[in-house]
């Protein structure tokens, strides 16, 4: 029995009149009669007795009526939930640290405003970990600073970003230097797996330079504080250090012969189903809306 047969049967049972049921269903009376006969013929039962120009439900029809109501109600509930999945489901977002600090709070706030029933879960991790979680379907969408490496991930550039070299405010480091001169300096780095570190390493490698790394940390704030104490220089996302430069906690160093610009990306698995919510995230104007977001930290 199809859902169509069930709906027709329920309406006939309520009306006890084929013509009235057909009008309520926007069908012809012969089509309604045919559907009832199809049910009776397929299951070898009688649903309605037909005499004295009326129809009367059999005991089997009375049993079927309440079962059909329950099934149709469950089906309608399922349809409603599926149609509202983007507003009531779970969205799993990932972000690298700088974007997690500066972009994710506002993004999540606005998603909650536009999708109030949506449960949003956020992971702030390094880029390598985010790529693995996208590939294994532990995340729906990830925001990654710089390049996305895995070929099975679809990516789109969303924000133009700049890396900044910083030094202690009272260090004797010149205000501007070459990349080779920077390579000779003690450098404080994020841990392996950080997309910022991978990108910086690729720049030095392309110039046949080896970095003098003296410090490795998962915390950008620990690195910034170590730079303040003149332990070495660091190369971090501009938006992450702007507050510290503006307040004099560290100072910025110019690089004469290398472009430290990069592009941040939104990434999903290339085979990921693109629901309306996923499409909304992929088509959002991040450069105009979120690249200006500033948080003191």
What can you tell me about this protein's structure?
The chain is built from 14 helices and 12 strands. Helix 1 crosses helix 2, helix 1 crosses helix 4 and helix 2 crosses helix 3 (29-43). It has helices spanning 3-15, 18-24, 29-43, 59-83, 85-88, 97-102, 104-114, 127-135, 179-183, 195-206, 220-228, 238-246, 276-283, 286-289; strands at residues 48-51, 54-57, 90-95, 119-124, 141-144, 153-167, 176-177, 187-190, 213-217, 233-237, 251-255, 261-269. 46% of the residues lie in helices and 23% in strands. The chain has 3 domains: 3-83, Winged helix-like DNA-binding domain superfamily/Winged helix DNA-binding domain (Arc Repressor Mutant, subunit A); 87-159 and 262-289, D-Maltodextrin-Binding Protein, domain 2, CATH 3.40.190; 162-261, 3-Layer(aba) Sandwich (D-Maltodextrin-Binding Protein, domain 2), CATH 3.40.190. The protein is α/β, with parallel strands linked by helices and 297 residues long. A hairpin with a 2-residue loop joins strand 1 and strand 2 (54-57). The strands form 2 sheets. Strands 3, 4, 5, 6, 7, 8, 9, 10, 11 and 12 form a 10-stranded mixed sheet that branches. The chain is rod-shaped and about 110 Å long. Residues 293-297 have low confidence and may be disordered. The two termini are 63 Å apart.
CATH superfamily of the largest domain, called what?
Periplasmic binding protein-like II
Q: Give me the Rg, rounded.
A: 32 Å
Percent of residues in β-strands: 15-25%
Alpha-carbon distance between the termini? 63 Å
Total number of beta strands: 12
**What is the string of SSEs from the N terminus onward?**
HHHEEHHEHHEHEEEHEHEHEHEEHH
Shape descriptor: rod-shaped
**Largest sheet at a glance?**
10 strands, mixed
**Regions with pLDDT < 50 over 5+ consecutive residues?**
293-297
User: Could you say what the CATH architecture of the largest domain is?
Assistant: 3-Layer(aba) Sandwich
- How many structural domains can be distinguished in the coordinates? 3
**What fold name stands as the CATH topology of the largest domain?**
D-Maltodextrin-Binding Protein, domain 2
Number of helices: 14
- Structural class based on helices, strands and sheet pairing: alpha/beta
Helix content: 40-55%
Q: What is the mean predicted local confidence, pLDDT?
A: 90
């Amino acid at each position: 029995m199809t859902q169509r047969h069930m709906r027709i049967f329920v309406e006939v049972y309520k009306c006890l009149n084929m013509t009235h049921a057909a009008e309520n269903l926007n069908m012809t009376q012969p089509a309604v009669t045919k559907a009832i006969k199809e049910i009776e013929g397929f299951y070898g039962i009688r649903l309605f007795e037909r005499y004295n120009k009326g129809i009367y439900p059999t005991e089997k029809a009375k049993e079927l009526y309440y079962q059909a109501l329950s099934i149709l109600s469950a089906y309608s509930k399922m349809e409603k939930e599926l149609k509202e999945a983007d507003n009531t489901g779970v969205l799993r977002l990932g972000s690298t640290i700088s974007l997690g600090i500066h972009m994710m709070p506002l993004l999540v706030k606005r998603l909650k405003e536009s999708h109030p029933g949506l449960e949003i879960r956020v992971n702030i991790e390094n880029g390598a970990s985010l790529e693995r979680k996208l590939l294994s379907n532990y995340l729906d969408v990830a925001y990654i600073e710089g390049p996305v490496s895995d070929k099975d991930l679809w990516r789109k550039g969303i924000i133009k970003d700049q890396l900044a070299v910083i030094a202690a405010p009272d260090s004797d480091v010149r205000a501007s230097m070459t990349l080779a001169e920077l390579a000779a300096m003690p450098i404080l780095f994020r841990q392996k797996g950080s997309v910022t570190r991978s990108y910086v390493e690729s720049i030095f490698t392309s110039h046949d330079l080896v970095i003098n790394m003296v410090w490795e940390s998962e915390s950008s704030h620990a690195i910034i504080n170590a730079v303040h104490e003149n332990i070495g220089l660091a190369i971090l996302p501009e938006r992450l250090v702007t507050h510290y430069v503006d307040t004099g906690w560290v100072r910025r160093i110019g690089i004469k012969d290398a472009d430290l610009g990069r592009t941040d990306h939104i990434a999903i698995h290339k085979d990921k189903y693109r629901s309306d919510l996923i499409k909304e995230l992929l088509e959002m104007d991040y450069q105009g809306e979120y690249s200006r977001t500033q948080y003191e930290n």
